[in-house]
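To whoever is on call:

I kicked off a structure prediction for a single chain this morning and the downstream step that reads the tokens threw a length-mismatch warning. I double-checked the sequence; it's 247 residues and nothing unusual in it as far as I can see. Pasting both halves so you can look.
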Amino acid sequence: MLSPATTEALAASGVTKRFGGLVAVDNMSFTLAEKDVLGLIGPNGSGKTTMMNLISGALKPSAGQINFYGHAIAGTGASNVAKKGIARTFQLVRMLPTMTALENVAAGGVFGHARRWGKELDDYAHALLARVGLPNAAGLPVSALTYIDQKRVELARALASDPRILLLDEWLAGLNPTELKIGIALIEQLRVEGCTIVIVEHVMHAIRSLCDRCIVMNSGAKIAEGTPAEVLADHGVIRAYLGDEHA
């Protein structure tokens, strides 16, 4: 429940997604306040990425509504949602493989919320590469970059549109301990700057340190909601992750 002083950035109401007989997301409802970081967690196959796809417009819900700053966006398409101000990274990094790191970042500035062109776009893309720790990578083909550096480029591309909400789908997955520390610090900086974020993540250290609130999903449904400390101590959440003998 939002306090009267907060602005509601995102609201999902009764969102359901069916694939034939499979219910991937089951009657999900939640709100996200502006400048908050919401963790969306749960076991593998619990429907987290499907929910992210519904928010970003990649999928159309079978039922329910998603509002972005009071405007309905469910089923309007990924391009429309991006233009309104929702940007995302993906569970599996998606690069434009024939382009340089700079060109990949610039694409976010052309097709997203705040559009830039020409020298303004070029300068902004350079600044974003520096911001994510890649000041010298502009001219490199993305195929020459390491995995974490490709993830940094993808994050910079998402930021290039000046999104009002940033969706991070397991952005920290696959990183070694040193890379993980760098990645968490990058997200923490965005949080400090007031970026509104939904983060899907299995790294519980990141969830504890970054999130204001968490929603736990299992079998497509919400089974818990609260602060990271509250949900991670919930018996239903422990049961979903570890089994009945640990609950």
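Update from on-call: the warning came from a stale cache, not from the record. Cleared it. Sanity check on the structure: The chain has a mean pLDDT of 91.
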